[in-house]
């Protein structure tokens, strides 16, 4: 309406009510007055109701003893703790679930989003079915399913399922080993961080040199060759020793295994590298597939499994051979093996040199319950699992939308530059897609955090359960408690949108 | 003219073989399943996963399932699959909740009326859109209320505590969306307004409700709404949930409508102003018809989200579909190892059918509306 205010001066004067500026002010006075009156009415009513129920207001209840139990807290909790500590416990539990859920949902969501766009027909179909099923079923129903139908239906403590890596699952939740690093292990952690930084630095430096001069630095190329051999040796040793474990006839042939690994390493420096790689691929595919099949289909005859796995291994080896025969010479290849060796090898060296120990306190079944390890309650497991599965479906759709939003011309341009599919994605498509993906992704993170409040329905002690549930029931301070809870979520939301605005400003396309 | 060309071909070039393997099933297999080593690995793993996952699922749902008419003993047998007999036996409870059995005709009329009104509304070429919309959005809710609640025309009064199941799920989501469309449109217009007080109030309202989880909104509605009312008024439990759901979804709807308003070219606003139309005439005759048409898919998506979110009202003690399934799972007459899972699968299937159909509709509408005028 303010658009028209240049008419006012020259036009013949009519009623003041027809002046858009005056009207605008009038409207605002009316609406503002109504809102104020509405709130006044509510406040008066509330005061009367509270007076009728002999209730007081104020936040002093936060410093009173809570006197109830919380089944799972991140800091020591007792019945004598205060209400503000209950608030904090709930908040921390919410954040715990949110952080774990966000990490897993991001990984699963990106994998699914890319899978749905994959040129592999089967994988694309599986991803589509997953996404369309999961996102059309209410989250609460899924949480009920995971909690009541899956985790609560787990066997009793005495009959716990044993998973690999000394993990146990039963009615009382998931028992995982607790890592117990000793003092020297700090050095290993430092080494891990430093060597990852070093690897990234070398990678960036090598790429810069290549961008400037057209080839990778000579020293890096030479080191990469050695690293190639070392990594080939390690992978071959792993593959052949797995094979030896699987095939009884090879059980005692450790000398043979080492010899074969050395041969593969030597071959990887020669022009026979593709063949060596194909043999290793055969061994790995065969062993992994055969073991997996035996675990998944115990009813199948083992001979059939072995033959099937061997055929798959041959196919894999052959495809790898075809695929790597025309690789560029090592001077033109990104030294990925070298970087892996730097990132993983230096910490391993430090681990051996300092004599650090990383012990694990393994959960052990005693008479009535497990002792030791970390005990994750079933509510936490169900909530994290449900939130991850649900949010991943939405993240996958955002990722798919982001990738599809990149103009087809970009793919074609990258193709005509001769970039391979991996490089095309990494250097051209993904950086442009991220601009579209990140804003909805952050709102999915926010949604996940908000949805973690559904944990209240399955008894996970997060903010809504501990505070809006138990605390409100005990103290009766409805207004204060709900206001505090809403304030927490409002803060999350404002922080998220602040981040989004910052990111959008940073990555916004610079247009002509 | 002399022939100074060095070489002239005397015979036709022999036709080359077509490139091998660009067509046919083998080529398709290579291209879409075994294009690269990692592709082949993924295909193998995917097939193994399907081989491993599908037979147990099939056996549970169909193969070893106890079909309607079966007995609870069959469901309790070792290795029995889903207990569909239980769903069949408790079906009315899942649909109507505690509604009196002799009064089922009332919800049935509501279902039929709703379907008869909404189907032509969703078909773009169906005639009488204006009357149809009026009937659905205004007359239908009023009739539904009196029909279900009773107390008029000699019909028995049925308190809302006895309403339940899918009936309540549908009521909450429909009322939620019908009430939130006008509120959402007003909020979206308010947010776009140049009047600072109106704009601030709209932004505050929208951002507040969008920031908090629905469960806290429902808690607030069910605990604080009675406090806000004058002393002595009682607010029906279902009505409290409806207020909470409406506030929540109108904030989301406002953002969807705002998208439509922002997508309109400025020229439309300016042309309206140039014709001398007042703000409301301009909005009603020029802006909203175009903006709302564009956001129909968005509104349907909002409706899907709302439909799924209605399951949260079970937390504040309303017997919606999820809550009836959840409470029936402790029915001792049908207790069996698969009872709870069967109930969840049934509820999931009902929700899935509704949501999937709506999402397909929204996609279809999006394609229909995408007439190539996108900026």
Write the layout of secondary structure elements.
The complex is a heterodimer of chains A (512) and B (375).
Chain A (H helix, E strand, L loop, with lengths): L6 H4 L9 H33 L30 H34 L4 H14 L4 H13 L9 E3 L3 E4 L2 E4 L1 E4 L3 H29 L4 H29 L7 H14 L5 H24 L5 H23 L11 H19 L3 E4 L2 E2 L4 E2 L2 E3 L1 H28 L2 H9 L4 H31 L11 H13 L2 H30 L5
Antiparallel strand pairs in A: 1-2, 2-3, 3-8, 4-5, 6-7
Helix pairs in contact in A: 3-4, 3-12, 3-15, 4-12, 5-12, 6-11, 7-8, 7-9, 7-11, 8-9, 9-10, 12-14, 13-14, 14-16, 15-16
Chain B lengths: L23 H9 L4 H27 L8 H5 L7 H6 L1 H6 L8 H18 L6 H21 L15 H28 L3 H16 L2 H15 L8 H27 L2 H9 L4 H16 L1 H14 L11 H8 L10 H31 L6
Helix pairs in contact in B: 6-7, 8-9, 8-11, 8-14, 8-15, 9-11, 10-11, 11-13, 11-14, 12-13, 14-16, 15-16
Strand order of the largest sheet of chain A: 1-2-3-8
Radius of gyration of chain A: 31 Å
Assembly type of the shown chains?
heterodimer
| Average pLDDT rating of chain B | 84
What's the Cα radius of gyration of chain B?
29 Å
So what's the overall shape of chain B? flat
Poorly predicted tracts of residues of chain A = none
Proportion of β residues of chain A?
A: 5-15%
**What's the end-to-end separation of chain B, in Å?**
61 Å
The H/E string of chain A reads HHHHHEEEEHHHHHHEEEEHHHHH
Count the strands of chain B? 0
Mean pLDDT of chain A: 84
Task: Give the helices and strands of chain B as they follow along the chain.
Answer: HHHHHHHHHHHHHHHH
Largest interface, counted with CB-CB under 8 A?
A-B, 71 and 67 residues
Structural class assignment of chain B: mainly alpha
Largest sheet entry of chain B: none
Query: Low-confidence parts of chain B, pLDDT < 50 over ≥5 residues?
Result: none
Compute the number of strand runs of chain A: 8
Instruction: Give the class of chain A from helix and strand content and strand pairing.
Output: mainly alpha
- The total count of helices of chain B amounts to 16
